Amino acid sequence: MTATAASLEALAAARQERPATLAEATEALRRADQDRERVLFLGGGTELSLGAPPAGVEVVLGTERLERIVEHAPLDQIVTVEAGVRLSSLQGTLAASGQMLALDAPWAARATLGGLVATNAFGPLRTRYGSVRDLIIGISIVRADGTEARGGGKVVKNVAGFDLPKLMVGSLGTLGFISTVTFRLHPRPEASRTVLFRDLDADAVRRVVLVMRQAQLEPGAAAALVHEGGDDLGVRFDGRFELGVRFDGFEAGVRQQSMKLLDLATRQGWGAESLGAEVARAFWARHDDARESPAGFRAKLAAQPMDLERVANGAIGSLFAALEVPRCVCYPTLGLAFVAGEVRVPGQVAAAVNAARDAVPEGSVVVHAAPPEVRGAVDVWGPPPAALPLMRAVKDRLDPGRRLAPGRLVGGL
Amino acid sequence: MSAPSLVTPAAPAAAPIPAPPSVLDRLIAVVGDRNVIRDPADLRTYECDGLTSFRAAPSVVVLPASTEEVAAVVRIAVEAGMPIVPRGAGTGLSGGALPVPGCVLLGLSRMKRILEVDLDNGWIRVQPGVINLDVSKEISAAGYYYAPDPSSQSVCTIGGNVAENSGGAHCLKYGFTVNHVRGVRMVTAAGEVVDIGGPVLDPPGYDLLGVLVGSEGTLGIVTEVVLRILRKAEATRTFFATFPSTTEGGNCVSEIIGAGIIPAAIEMMDRLAIQAAVAATGVDWPDVGAALLMDVDGCTAEAEHTASLALGIARRTGALEVRVPKDEDERMLMWKGRKSAFGAMGRLAPNYIVQDGVIPRKDIARVLAEIARLSQERGLRVANVFHAGDGNLHPLVLYDAKVPGEEHAAEELGGEILRLCIRYGGSITGEHGVGADKAPYMAEMFSEADLDTMAKVRCAFDPGTTFNPTKVFPTPRLCGDRPGPYRPHATELAGLADRG
Question: Which residues of chain B have a CB within 8 Å of the CB of A336?
Fold first, then answer.
């Protein structure tokens, strides 16, 4: 990840704090407050390039030593972790109790739970279980002024007070330091089966989503990858996808649902097959590669699910034409996609970002990674949301000195 | 949960503080004469919500019909220095819509249009006065529904649901209101109209929706809501099981969850609650220590598999009897029994107080035993009917207001139960909201710094604390002109501004 490496280099000049306890983290923030220093929080560094480069960071507060699982109550299906716990390590612990955090975000071996909350990361399981905001039930933070505060709790159902946990989701370290997080957990499914559609155009992918819903199917995950292919110049986007739909749950339900989907596919004339375990793993490994392999440029596209054709032709197509070795992962039930690749001509990539934004005016195109030449030519966030003044007010109240990752989030938040 | 409240008010509220004539004139110019209610007798209707033991008269009730009218009313009230209390159907059980003396009560019941339906993209856009159940009715023929189902769903409004982050029996699997709101149009304290979120996921910036939903009308006035809608499940399987006591019932719930089943709903009733339901609806439930009512849903094979697994667990954990409804009518009757348990309390006692504290699920048996002990100590009966899957208790403290001191004793017992929930690491409210009722307990559940952080968020939205002041927070808070570290206000330090 060249962009990440560049950002890391720029931050190397800052003072590095690596607290071993939550008390030390609070102490570090109090010192930074006294000295009026600007602070950046660092988890696994997997999304460090997301957002505008924060201005004049003097302290980098890393969470790598805050890796304690504070409480796992299997009977209550909740877990509380310190911010620096890695996603794959947590999943390993939970698996021993037959449970999981229903979050299969990328770079699981490095990504930390604090970072995943701050960046609102997700994976294909979002199809069924929702995103971080649907899984987080409690949080403790340290404010810019060194005050420790807590919101939510450790029971799933709780409407006491404002939902600070959700406010912190996607806040990119601009509102406070996330010290611990409590999540609700889910049982690990007994069985899984993936049905693969090898060759569909965008309209057919969209129709599969509708047909599945009409048939009352409840997929655990659905992901479409742009077809591999093309010539020596790289992959050409020919508007075609392979779509994997996975059913998770008890064997009886998984079997019924995958058979039903195959049957529907046959009737519609879509080629589909139920994959054996080995081939299914290969499909999801291709998915992981497409979203995780190092890339100089990466963008997230959001639109309404039924606008997939417009997204594919207008947004994905434009970006594919401008990028080298482009790739794409699309979550068709959610209306979300990631496009990644290498930048050959920055001006072309910047123009493609603008074209993508024009193609989905009611949605968003957010640049997660890009070289400075591209960042100089387009706003990585795109147009600010209508509620920006309220967001500014929240930032001003919680970080009046503007010392936490200043300017990283949309609209200079 | 709605219930026709049976609490007899000790005394009517004090006479309303009249609104200045100039303010009335301006309000009438915006919404029309008949939508500005200011006759003291008419204002009585709005003295309380579902929590009838708390009463206060508003100065004026305004019933706007559009976002623009709401914005104009907000600007008029702010200029006049009058607080604004929003109100939906007034079914809330925590006093969230309780007027503040001298306030403009903003009733949103006239804004009840369904504005736009997009089945393919899975959302519906509605005004806040739309009744919860009417959302599902609108899309039912197409096979869709709106998931959050508070027991009051046939009368409560979407705006009220958004304010309270309402739940219901099926939120164990499907989530609360906050998991189903995609976007809102809102009038801010500055009287401006702003859109937050929308049909498309992950708009850049802070998740203001996450904090707005459940903020109990303290952050803004929502005038349109984009709701996520779901396709109905292919199959639902229901069973009813009886147990010698809530201990066996609680164990059954734990084992079902432990087996990897996520029930759509799993409800428990104790002996008193069963008796009340029988008296009210004529269901032929036996006189036993506990009963479970459970729904599983999904594709047919999954629903049947999980239902049979759960039935096996019920038998193994000591069920006295297991019943499976033979048809949809019988199933509806079972649910009617459960949902009427609240209202049915009137057959057991003249008055009751309901709490909705939450505890970790694994501690259900222990907490119920403690509640039973408290009940005996205080000589007051407590009926329990609750969402067992997520540990959301609904203890109903029965009393007779005509017996001197009994109402006070019941309130104290209710408070003890909330403290019990806090002690077990739970929450003082799972779905009814803090409102006026539980605000004093917030300081026991949260630290001063926690509350201060929440207050900062409130000040960001509403620096003049115009919207629903005196709710949620245990002590009045002023925002101050400049954002900065929290300093107690002089009146707080002097002890003058403590809650009365």
Answer: 201-202
Provide the pairing of β-strand A15-17 with A59-62.
parallel
* Chain A environment of B438 (Cβ under 8 Å): 160
Nearest CA among A20, A400, A396 for reference residue A179: A20
CATH 3.30.465.10 at A1-188, yes or no: yes
Quick: pLDDT tens for B40-63. 999 999 999 999 889 999 999 999
CATH number of B235-423: 3.40.462.10
Nearest to A290 by CA among A320, A246, A247: A320
**Residues A254, A2: Cα–Cα separation, whole Å:** 41
Domain B114-231 has CATH 3.90.1150.10: no
The string of DSSP codes covering A346-365 is: HHHHHHHHHHHHHH-TTSEE
How far lies A281's CA from each of A190, A194, A284, in Å?
16, 9, 5
pLDDT (mean) for B412-423: 96
Q: Which residue of A has its CA nearest to B256?
A: A75
SS (HEC) of B183-240:
EEEEECCCCCEEEEECCCCCCCCCCHHHHHCCCCCCCCEEEEEEEECEECCCEEEEEE
pLDDT digits (tens, 9 = 90+) for B375-408: 999 999 999 998 999 999 999 999 999 999 999 9
Selected residues 127-156 of chain A with any CB under 8 Å from a CB in chain B: 130-131, 133-134, 141, 143, 145, 147-151, 153-156
The domain defined by B21-107 carries CATH number 3.30.43.10: yes
Instruction: Answer yes or no: do A388 and B453 touch at CB < 8 A.
Output: no
Q: What is the pLDDT of residues B252-305, one digit of tens each?
A: 999 999 999 999 999 999 999 999 999 888 899 999 999 999 999 999 999 999
CB B133 within 8 A of CB B154: yes
* Nearest-CB residue to A163 (from B122, B214, B360): B214
Token pair, residue A80, equals 């509380």
pTM of the model: 0.95
